[in-house]
Write a structure and sequence with these properties.
Elements (H helix, E strand, L loop, with lengths): L1 H10 L2 H10 L2 E2 L9 H20 L9 H10 L4 H28 L8 H23 L4 H13 L7 H9 L6 H32 L15 E2 H26 L29 H9 L3 H13 L4 H4 L12 H21 L7 H17 L1 H15 L4 H15 L5
Helix pairs in contact: 3-5, 3-9, 3-10, 4-5, 5-10, 6-7, 6-9, 11-12, 11-14, 11-15, 14-15
Length: 411
């Protein structure tokens, strides 16, 4: 066996790669449990791909058979009900983990130099996951699936010049029908593999610049500790707690993440009383509905989704650590989280007063967090330096970074 492993290592240094990128990978010693959500997102991606592969074996991408094929999985396929519930609950769990991962990135300022590429690849990952989730939502061919796809694809028609062409390209027809279902099924099947490839790029970017830490101040190489066994055990504990919650939902409340209207076959002649997307789309849906003009609403919704990629340029403070040493940013972040939660609640309400007015107010506050950040971050830095409350290691780091900048980036 040792001879076989030595032969493999000569031609493909697998054990060396594992040691370098996993077991011996140097990690700051002060990472907390908020850093667990990256590995949990990877776990959920694997679960979604595996359950999706088995579900695809029994799914029929045909409007006459799609709904019945789901019922066939649930009733006749061995453990088909379990695969379906893990996959449907897993979509919500995946987004919950991603949003918490994004929240940690924002709070601790992990998007700042030299980690801009990680932020941008993460932004693309978010868009791909949202696209896969939207396309997967049509596949059960229930009432909410059909009408949700109809409403969302129609929004692209508001784009000038190319709008109608994009709608037909998405649907493959003039209405949501068999061609749409086939296209969405193929894309829903393929996009997770694109996500997996981009995750590798995301990790390469991470391992190139090394992990950040709650303090924000880079630690000396000699103070780092190997990823294994310290953080593999920490991640394992996080995975155990997560799986207890996740499997509890799968076994005891699986229908919580399947809308009641989706248990009814799609009917183009019968519109549901209210068309509401899944909870992870609700904040953006509220922003869309807050603006009377359809085109402006679509643009605002799109910008609200991708504006996170601009954070490395918007945050002008030189103080490391995000909210760790910056009280104004910390409170701004807390307010932003409350705004997002409130927008999600408003997105599930009827498009009437006072919900529309509240959505408009909160949409302004949503964008204000980003647009005021350049001025607030610079003012906060000056204010904290005048107060003299920053720790010595933070001041030393800021001084060293300023010297690097004056020397043209040379240490």
């Amino acid at each position: 066996m040792k001879g076989v492993m030595a032969w493999i290592d000569e031609r493909f240094p697998l054990s060396a790669i594992i040691r370098h990128e996993l077991t011996d990978y140097p990690v700051p010693r002060n990472l907390n449990y908020w850093w667990n959500f990256g590995s949990l997102a990877g776990l959920m991606l694997v679960i979604q791909i595996l359950t999706g592969l088995f579900l695809a074996m029994h799914y029929k991408a045909d409007i006459g058979m799609a709904f019945d094929s789901i019922e066939h999985m649930m009733r006749d396929v061995n453990y088909g009900w379990l695969l379906r519930y893990i996959h449907s609950t897993g979509a919500s769990a995946f987004f919950a983990v991603i949003f918490l991962h994004m929240g940690r990135t924002l709070y601790y300022g992990c998007y700042r130099k030299p980690r801009e590429l990680m932020m941008w690849t993460g932004q693309i990952l978010l868009l791909l996951v949202m696209g896969a989730a939207f396309m997967g939502y049509l596949l059960p061919w229930g009432q909410m699936s059909y009408w949700g796809a109809t409403v969302i694809t129609e929004l692209f028609g508001a784009l000038p010049v190319v709008g109608e062409s994009i709608v037909i390209l998405l649907r493959g027809d003039f209405v949501v029908g068999d061609a749409t279902l086939t296209r969405f099924f193929v894309l829903h099947y393929l996009i997770p593999f694109l996500i997996a490839g981009l995750v590798v790029i995301h990790l390469v970017a991470l391992h190139t610049v090394k992990s950040s830490n709650p303090e924000g101040v880079p630690q000396p190489e000699k103070d780092a500790i190997p990823f294994h066994p310290y953080y593999t055990l920490k991640d394992f504990l996080g995975v155990c707690i997560f799986l207890i919650i996740f499997l509890g939902l799968v076994f005891y409340s699986p229908s919580s993440f399947i809308m009641a209207d989706n248990n009814v076959p799609a009917d183009a002649m019968k519109t549901p009383p209210s068309i509401v997307p899944e909870w992870y789309f609700l904040p953006f849906y509220a922003i869309l509905r807050a603006i009377p003009d359809t085109l402006s609403g679509v643009v605002a919704m799109g910008v609200a989704t991708v504006i996170f990629a601009a954070l490395p340029f918007l945050d002008r403070s030189r103080i490391p650590g995000g909210g760790r040493f910056r009280p104004v940013y910390r409170w701004s972040f807390a307010a932003f989280v409350l705004v997002v939660i409130a927008l999600a609640w408003l997105g599930a309400q009827a498009a009437e007063e006072p919900y529309v007015t509240l959505s408009r107010i909160l949409s302004v506050l949503y964008f204000a967090f980003f647009l005021t950040l350049p001025w607030v971050s610079r003012w906060e830095e000056k204010w904290l330096l005048q107060r003299g409350t920053l720790p010595k290691e933070v001041l030393d780091y800021m001084e060293s970074e300023e010297k690097k900048a004056n020397n043209g980036g040379q240490s």
